[in-house]
Write a structure and sequence with these properties.
single chain
Length: 369
């Protein structure tokens, strides 16, 4: 629409009076007709102009000038759909004589002036930097002693999406699977999701998820580790708020301590450790720490702090027919387990002092790396 034409015709029973027309800019939504005969009746109608030409006339309104004018609003109900962080103005052009009182209600509550919402001199209500919380109905009510009127505007704010609900569905030793359920009451478009996750003793990472994804799996995770994760939905307007953090754990536990009979093979000057006797708890073994000491001494001797899993490992240079303590710490991604054994080397002739045995009280322990 390029402009409007307002037509005014005075009605006279005795003669036909030609109508007059007045041009109104396209953005002007009202027109004040002046210089009218107080004793005459008038017809009013409007046409709109485009680049093609003038359109059909509106319905005609017939009325007479009067000093007793019921309160009316020269604005129409409207729906405003705008992105977040923009400004919006709700028109409410009040007419009437005497001048009507004007009030606004926002979602059925009385308007209260604030830094962002203020009443303009022409009766319009302006909201700056709108948020999704501003969405709803804005009603303007006018009244004087001859009547009252009301106009209702609806505000829809297209902002970033609300956070989705994250529902865990399954875990393996190296993956976590979850479902995404968008907020049911949120009609804001969603273009995709971003999942942020971190192991208990690691740094945050993130992966992007397509907008039509119902279920998603995080792969290549650490075995037997606790994880935190949250999801953010986004669209063309921006990133939404993060979902509540979810805590879970991949499958797998610390290594299982073996019996001495399966783990230790004692000779006169050494002890062989059969590392395959350890069960990995579902998480592959990473390394072993091996220490030993004569039974009657306090300090441990470190043999190696990086024994690779698989096969056998031999502790050499032991004295024959001597009691020793052996401590082995086994590590995997789920944590570590400590086993402590007491054994006696064979005599130089191959005899035994006593069969190999575990310390009383099963001296085994485990922990998290």
């Amino acid at each position: 629409v390029l402009q409007y034409s307002v037509y005014i015709k005075e009605l006279d029973r005795s003669r036909d009076i030609a109508s007059k027309s007045f041009k109104v800019p396209a953005l002007q939504m009202n027109y004040h007709a002046s210089g009218l005969n107080t004793k005459s009746r008038y017809e009013f109608w409007v046409t709109a102009h485009t680049s093609i030409g003038e359109g059909a006339p509106s319905t005609k309104a017939t009325l007479s000038p009067s000093s007793r004018i019921p309160a009316k609003i020269a604005s129409f109900d409207d729906k405003f759909v705008i992105p977040a962080k923009r400004n919006v103005k709700f028109p409410c052009i009040a007419v009437g004589s005497p001048s009507p009182d004007l009030t606004w209600k926002i979602n059925e509550k009385d308007y209260v002036k604030s830094d962002r919402i203020r009443l303009l001199p022409d009766g319009s209500l302006q909201v700056t930097n709108v948020t999704k919380e501003d969405a709803g109905t804005y009603k303007c009510l006018v009244n004087n002693k001859f009547g009252q009127d009301m106009v209702t505007h609806e505000l829809v704010v297209n902002g970033p999406p609300e956070p989705p609900m994250v529902i865990l569905t399954s875990q393996t030793t190296d993956s976590i699977t979850f479902k995404l359920r968008p907020e049911e009451t949120d009609t804001t478009p969603i273009h995709g999701f971003i999942v942020h996750y971190k192991p208990e003793f690691g740094d945050w990472e993130k992966e992007e998820i397509g907008f039509n994804t119902d279920e998603y799996t995080l792969n290549h995770l650490w075995c037997g580790q606790g994880y935190q994760l949250y999801v953010i939905a986004y669209n063309s307007i921006g990133m939404g708020k993060p979902s509540p953090a979810v805590t879970t754990k991949t499958k797998g536990v610390e290594p299982t301590v073996p019996d001495a009979r399966r783990f230790l093979e004692v000779s006169a000057g050494s002890v062989t450790l059969h590392l395959n006797a350890w069960q990995d708890g579902g998480c592959p073994m990473i390394y072993f720490v091996v220490e030993y000491k004569p039974k009657n001494q306090k300090d441990w001797t470190l043999v190696s702090n990086n024994v690779k899993p698989g096969g056998n490992f031999v502790v050499l240079d032991l004295n024959p027919a001597t009691w020793y303590n052996l401590k082995v710490t086994a590590h995997n991604n789920a944590g570590f387990s400590i086993a402590e054994y007491e054994f006696a080397t064979l005599t130089s002739t191959g005899g035994t002092l006593a069969p190999a045995r575990e310390l009383p009280g099963d001296s085994k322990s485990s922990g998290n790396a």
